[in-house]
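Design job #97: recover the sequence.
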């Protein structure tokens, strides 16, 4: 499990946003990331790789997780109110 700092997370989300818009960047690779209690409310994580990520108690309210790969991710206690999970694995 790799711990992701808030600064690194912001950078990953920015690059992912650019990738989604076709402006370079790269797909968010958050495999096996320790994101416990992370504030990801409103984040666009569509198509992101979140396999085996630890998202316990993360704030994912209104996050876009459409098409994201969540296989093996731990979402225990996460707040998913209003989140988009359409097509997520």
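Job complete. Output follows.
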């Amino acid at each position: 499990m790799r711990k992701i700092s808030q600064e690194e997370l912001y950078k990953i989300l920015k690059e992912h946003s650019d990738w989604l818009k076709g402006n370079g960047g790269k797909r968010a690779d958050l495999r096996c990331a320790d994101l416990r209690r992370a504030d990801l409310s409103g984040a666009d994580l569509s198509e992101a790789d979140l396999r085996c990520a630890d998202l316990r108690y993360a704030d994912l309210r209104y996050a876009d997780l459409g098409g994201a790969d969540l296989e093996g991710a731990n979402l225990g206690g996460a707040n998913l109110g209003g989140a988009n999970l359409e097509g997520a694995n």
